[in-house]
Every structure is written in C-alpha cells, then in structure tokens.
C-alpha cells in the first residue's frame, strides 16, 4: 500500500539493503532524483502513470511471448492467440492500475486523468503495431525459454544485493545448438540510439546477474524497444513509415562481466553512503536530466529555498515498494 509522505523525505536517511539494475542509472544521472524517487518512492500524478504504463506494457508482452504459445510455430492460430492474450492482460492490468491510482491520488487524480486516458490509447496502439511488425521482424526473438525471471545476487565483498529481472530469455541458436539471449523490453519516446550498445551498463548488469546465478555466460543480450508511435497516422489515416520497434543485439565477455562486478562493489558503497547522508544527495541539473524528472518540482523548491515540505505533502504520494 502507498502511504502519505511526511514532507521530511529530503532530509531523512534510508538504510538500503539492495539496489536494482535499473535504478543505478538514476543514481549516476542525479543523486537527488535517486534519493527521492527511488529510495523514498515519492510520486506525483504523472510519475505513477509512467511507472504503471511500463509495468502494464511488460505484462502484455509477457503474455504475448508466453512459451506455450510462442514456441508453437506450426499452429495456424498461434499469432491470433498470442495477440488476444496480450490484449486481455493489458486491459485488465490497466484498469486495475487506474483504479489504484485514482484511489491513492485523491484530488490529484483530476490533474492526471487525461494523461492516463491518452496513455491507455497509446499502449493499445503500440501493441497492435508490435504484433503486426513482430511477424515480419528481421531479428527473430527465438525459442522462448522463460519470461520475467527475477534474480537476486550478493554484490561481491559487500553485504548488499543487486536485483534484476530478465524480461525474456530465449534460445536463438540453430537447430541442435543452444544459444541463450536475454532481452530487456523498453518503451521509448524517441528513436533508440545503439551507438554505445557495446558499453551499455544495464545490459551488462543483466548478463552479470545471469552468470552469477547460473554459472553460465549468456551468448548475447538485447533490447526489444517499443517506440511510442502510432502504427497509423492520426492525420492521414495511413500506416506510418517510421519504425515501431527495434531489436538491438550485443555481446558481453567474461572479462567485461568481471569488470562490471568490481565497479558494482564500489558503486554500492557510494550509494549506501548517500542513502545514509541526505546532504550528499545533491542534484545534477541539466537540459538532459531535468525534463521528465518525477521530483523536479521538489528539487526546484529546495534550490530556491521554498516550502518543499508542503509541496511534498500536498502534491505527492509514496508509491509501493519496487523489488
């Protein structure tokens, strides 16, 4: 259950025991955002919606790539069954998320309802475009081995843990030779940039976790990127010519994963220190970090010496714990 904030979150230490693969990027981007949004879980009207949108899209894709349906390549109605299953899951999860947000946000719901409605339509149309484009994709998803597999691993030499969830684990090898690939689903507003994919730290994190838990090094890791675009233009009614999704594949060697583990241990100590000392959760304002930040209003109020406590208590809620 979510709770009401105290307004004292910016000055309240947090004792952390674990971190996630995804929140580490927020820590590097801006310590204040990480401290308030990830540790104290402060959410404004839009923040809750964006988080739930990602969760619901993940659930729909999990249903679409369900192993029992996805691997039955010879079934004539397999595509229809997969798409129908994903539609049902999306609708059920979105309705549940909407009802929960309306209850938790109270009077703030009136500021958020239009955006929730718009994203419901966007999510449905994104999925329809994905269903159609997936059939013609140049990069086959492969034989599905597992979906939404969660791991928890002790960080080397520390008392902390790193958690992560592999959205999709597939076998993309030729017949008779297994070749495991981990996929991470992404929903992006702009075009995916693959120029630094070979150094992408999030994919390294998933590969490292998988190796630590199973003793096996993945053959490859990849992003399955759904772009926030409509498959049919609202202006012309014609199919869009731009890409609706991108599948981007890269590789990680054992040396890279060893380096990741060493750096992770150092980063954990930094994160633990900042969590225990709120004064070290300083902001990193820039034209790249601030747009879309879920706690931007709080940060501005703090920098300008305004009453951020009242702002937090009247404009934010504390979201559910995210494992």
Q: Can you offer a commentary on this structure?
A:
The chain has about 325 residues and is α/β, with parallel strands linked by helices. The chain has helices spanning about 25-30, 30-40, 45-65, 65-70, 80-105, 110-135, 200-215, 255-275, 295-305, 310-315, and strands spanning about 20, 40-45, 145-155, 160-170, 180-190, 220-225, 245-250, 315-320. The protein has a domain at about 145-265: Alpha-Beta Complex (Lambda Exonuclease, Chain A). It is built from ten helices and eight strands. Strands 1, 3, 4, 5, 6 and 7 form a six-stranded mixed sheet that branches. A two-stranded antiparallel ribbon has the order 2-8. Strand 4 (about 160-170) and strand 5 form a beta hairpin. Helix 3 runs antiparallel to helix 5 (about 80-105) and helix 5 (about 80-105) packs antiparallel against helix 6 (about 110-135). The longest helix has 28 residues, at about 80-105. The two termini are about 15 Å apart.
What attributes characterize this protein structure?
alpha/beta; Lambda Exonuclease, Chain A; two-stranded antiparallel ribbon; 10 helices; 8 strands; 16% strand
């Amino acid at each position: 259950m979510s709770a009401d904030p105290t307004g004292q979150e910016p000055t309240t230490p947090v004792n952390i025991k674990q971190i996630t693969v995804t929140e580490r990027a927020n820590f590097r981007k801006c310590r204040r955002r990480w401290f308030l949004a990830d540790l104290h879980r402060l959410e404004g009207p839009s923040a809750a919606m964006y988080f739930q949108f990602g969760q619901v899209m993940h659930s729909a894709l999990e249903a679409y790539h369900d192993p029992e349906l996805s691997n039955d390549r010879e079934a004539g109605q397999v595509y229809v069954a997969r798409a129908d299953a994903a539609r049902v899951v999306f609708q059920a999860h979105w309705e549940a998320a909407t009802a929960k947000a309306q209850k938790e946000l109270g009077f703030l719901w009136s500021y958020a309802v239009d955006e929730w409605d718009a994203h419901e339509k966007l999510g449905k149309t994104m999925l329809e475009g994905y269903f159609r484009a997936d059939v013609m994709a140049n990069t086959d998803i492969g034989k599905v081995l597992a979906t939404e597999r969660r791991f928890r691993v002790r960080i080397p030499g520390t008392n902390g843990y790193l958690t992560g969830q592999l959205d999709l684990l597939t076998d993309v090898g030729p017949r008779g030779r297994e070749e495991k690939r981990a996929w991470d689903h992404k929903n992006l507003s702009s075009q995916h940039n693959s120029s630094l994919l070979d150094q992408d730290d999030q994919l390294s994190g998933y590969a490292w976790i998988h190796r630590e838990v199973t003793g096996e090094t993945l053959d490859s890791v990849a992003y399955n990127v759904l772009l926030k675009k409509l498959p049919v233009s609202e202006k012309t009614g014609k199919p869009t010519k731009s890409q609706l999704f991108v599948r981007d594949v890269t590789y990680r060697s054992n040396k890279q994963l060893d380096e990741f583990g060493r750096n992770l241990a150092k980063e954990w100590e930094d994160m633990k220190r900042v969590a225990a000392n709120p004064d070290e959760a300083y902001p990193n304002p820039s034209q790249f970090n601030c747009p879309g930040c879920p706690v931007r209003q709080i940060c501005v109020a703090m920098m300008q010496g305004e009453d951020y406590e009242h702002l937090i208590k009247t404009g934010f809620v504390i979201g559910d714990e995210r494992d």
